[in-house]
Structures are given as structure tokens and as C-alpha cells.
Amino acid sequence: MFGFGKKKEVQKQELLEMKNIRLDCKPKDKDEVIREVGTMLCESGYVDEGYIEAMLKRELTFATNIGNGIALPHGVEEAKKEIRRSGIAVMVFPEGTDWGGEKVKLVIGIAGAGEEHLEILASIAEHLERPEDVERLVSCTKEEIYNTFTGKGREQ
Predict the structure, then answer these.
(1) What is the pTM of this model?
(2) Which residues of 11-40 are buried (b: 16+ CB within 10 A; e: fewer)?
(3) CA dist., res. 124 & res. 118, Å (int)
(4) Domain coordinates in residue numbering, the chain
(5) What homologous superfamily does CATH list for 18-149?
(6) Catalytic machinery residues
(7) What is the mean pLDDT of each run of 10 residues along the chain (156 residues)?
């Protein structure tokens, strides 16, 4: 009668929501891309608005492109208070976009609450270890990208 024994779906919120995956993005200024990916994190309730400026500040002191055509913009350490819960947002640039002289095809905005940012980075590194992994993801559907980062739709 009261639903005992049933798990509430609200219990654990997703690290990645389908609406936070943007395919076929056109090349833009790096700061514009960071604002856009940060806005997705903000609008989904992962972070407060101040986190977007912290992402831009991080980029000034430490470029977040990590090779293999990937950039992982995230906030500076003191912006941790702006994070409500861990989450990511993904932008795919099939033609690439300039990231301080490197062509980046995959931009993954990261908000990691507490020490979860290390787990998120490890997961991303695991899925995108080789350049061909990145190329595969760039040509994937939203559902395939979602499944890659959430583990849904596949048994491990």
C-alpha cells in the first residue's frame, strides 16, 4: 500500500543527462564554448552560476585540453562551493574547435563534488584513452554517448 521495498527513482541523480549532450557543434571561441558547457551544467542544477566564471578562470591558469582532441573545462579549486552535485556536459565538434592552438573535437564540462572529480576524470580517461575512441564518440548518437558515460545499455 505504501510502496515499501520500492526504490525511489530520485535517489541518485545522473552524472549526465541526455539534454546535456550537444552534437554537431560549430567551431567557436574557446571562452564561448566554456560558457556554453558551463551554462548546461548550471541549468541542470549541477552548479551555481558562479562556477562558469571559475571555469574561465581555470583556463587562464591551466589549459584544460588534454590531448587526443579532448578538453575538460572545470572550475578552480575555490569554486567547489559552487557545485551542488557532480555532473558533466558534452559538446561534440566534428570539425574541431580551436583550444589554444590545439584542435579539440570533444569538450566535456566537469563539475565534481568533493573527491568525485577524480572518479569522473578516471572514467573519461578509461573511455577516451586512444584517439580512435574519441573519433568513434564524435560520430556517435546522443544515446550512444549517454550510454558510454552512464554505463546504461551495456553490461560490463
Answers:
(1) 0.88
(2) eeebbbbeebbbeebeebebeebbbbbbeb
(3) 10
(4) 18-149
(5) Mannitol-specific EII; Chain A (3.40.930.10)
(6) 74
(7) 39 82 97 98 97 96 92 93 96 97 96 88 87 93 93 58
